[in-house]
Design a protein that fits this description.
This protein is an alpha+beta fold. Helix 1 crosses helix 12 and helix 13 runs antiparallel to helix 14. It is elongated, with a radius of gyration of 28 Å. A hairpin with a 2-residue loop joins strand 5 and strand 6. The protein is built from 23 helices and eight strands.
Length: 480
């Protein structure tokens, strides 16, 4: 952390574009929507960024005033001269827990004992209901000092919001340091960043498949799971001309669904004696059972041995069951031939059996059909103007119901070019709740809101894309 260059312009440019999948604290949909509005250019901006998308500032109505003042759209004013030292760093708007406590002491003349009781009641107000007794004391004393009632009410609501979740400034600064460090790593060493992120799963907001797709959009060379080349963890493989340290990302055996770390270690140990040439000798050298062999086969991990997935599964299920002949025999019947998987099927097998695919996004093979229906890519949609009415289809990444959103549901859809953020009003969600809650491949119709560098699609209705090829797997959790 101490050697990372401070205030790196390229890192802040990336943050302002909200290219933050996997970046600590600022990868959520809400943070991605805030970054282009706040446009951080220095470290303290990140301290504010990680703090502002919290129930405390949101409930207290402090977010939009801060943004308007930051952009110069309204003057920086203080509700009382005594509060300028408390609020100067945040443009007259309280954003941190310490500021809220100081407001109570300075603006409402709370004694240290009263402030400590406020802190206790604030932390437990939903359980005890004790915050109500502070309402008259806080607002009444502020109004008596000449502070506008509207501001006093907002401060009280923010204090209640901090009972749900809010940051002290010191806590926010610690988080911001890690956010900046991970953003710098993503910006300047994306393959290292992605490799570490994949090895740290499960964590964060996004499924490994989304992290892999983000890596592809960053131009990272991705290489599949391979019994001769993959370690347990994902690793870096040097590529390009000698002397130029460029790396590809090799997916690790940890992403084979159904394979354990102990089994992965047996593969690595057996491989030290030399590369594997056949599935039969692989099974003999590693001692793995049929289940592990089938799991590796389904991910395509034996393809470097010249065996496709279906052929590998056939061999894996027979190699341990059939007795070895005492004499070399010439079989009268040849091994069966299997129809090869096409690209969409290959990606589907990848996602079902290894939680990701380095061979492409599921919607890439379907793009001609989607284009024929007039459905844009995410990249094109996010460049369209405000107010445009559009239809779009993508894979559902997440559904969020924030307590501060008054019933509004936020969803994120994905295709091979990027993400699309949806805003779903309560009535729209309720009208099609079954479809909105369960479909993994979803079509939407709505109107774009494109403001301050942030695009949302406000949903009018949901529907299922009617494609000639829409395999059932695309409606399963495994295919996301």
């Amino acid at each position: 952390l101490a050697t990372i260059p401070p205030d790196d312009p390229a890192t802040y440019d990336m943050l302002c574009r909200a290219e933050t999948i996997g970046v600590f604290q600022v990868e959520s949909r809400a943070q991605m929507a805030m970054l282009p509005r706040l446009r951080p250019r220095r470290f303290y901006d990140l301290v504010v960024e990680v703090s502002v998308v919290r129930p405390g500032p949101i409930t207290g109505g402090m977010v939009h005033p801060y943004l308007r003042r930051r952009r110069g759209e309204e003057p920086v004013e203080y509700p009382h001269p005594s509060l300028e030292p408390v609020l100067k760093k945040t443009l007259g708007v309280p954003l941190f827990q310490e500021q809220v406590m100081k407001l109570a002491m300075i603006a409402a003349d709370y004694t240290p004992g009263e402030a400590d009781q406020l802190r206790r009641d604030m932390a437990a107000w939903r359980r005890t209901g004790q915050m109500d007794k502070h309402y008259e004391r806080l607002t009444g004393r502020m109004i008596a000092k000449g502070i506008p009632r509207e501001f006093a009410e907002r401060v009280f609501n923010q204090i209640k919001g901090f009972g749900d979740y809010g940051f002290p400034e010191s806590h926010a600064a610690s988080f911001a340091l890690i956010a900046y460090a991970t953003a710098w790593m993503r910006c300047h060493h994306p393959v290292v960043f992605t490799c570490g992120l994949l090895n740290a799963q499960p964590m964060g907001f996004y499924h490994p498949a989304t992290i892999v797709e983000d890596a592809r959009r960053m131009g990272i060379a991705l290489r599949p799971i391979d019994v001769n080349l993959s370690a347990w963890d994902c690793t870096l493989e040097e590529t390009g001309r000698p002397g130029r340290r460029r790396f590809a990302l090799r997916m690790g055996l940890r992403y084979v669904k159904g394979l354990g770390a102990e089994q992965g270690a047996r593969i690595e140990t057996a491989r030290r004696a030399g590369p594997f040439r056949q599935i039969e000798s692989f099974a003999a050298r590693t001692g793995l059972g049929e289940k592990a062999l089938a799991a590796l086969s389904a991910t395509g991990a034996f393809e470097s041995l010249g065996v496709d997935r279906r052929g590998a599964l056939w061999l894996a299920r027979g190699v341990l069951r059939l007795p070895r002949p005492a004499l070399p025999l010439d079989p009268a019947e040849a091994a069966p031939g299997f129809a090869p998987l096409d690209r969409l099927e290959t990606i589907g097998w990848d996602r079902r059996h290894s939680h990701h695919s380095v061979r492409g996004h599921p919607l890439a093979p379907l793009r001609p059909a989607l284009r024929a229906l007039g459905l844009p890519e995410a990249r094109a949609l996010n460049r369209m103007p405000d107010g445009r009415r559009v239809r779009y289809a993508g894979l559902v990444l997440n559904r969020q119901h924030p307590s501060t959103a008054k019933g509004v549901v936020f969803m994120t859809l994905e295709d091979e070019t990027g993400l699309v953020n949806l805003v779903v009003w309560p009535a729209v969600f309720a009208a099609q709740a079954a479809l909105a809650r369960t479909a993994s491949f979803l079509g939407v119709t709505g109107t774009l809101q494109a403001q301050e560098g942030v695009t949302h699609l406000v949903v009018e209705r949901f529907w299922l894309p009617e494609l000639e090829r829409r395999p059932e797997a695309m409606q399963s959790r495994d295919f996301r």
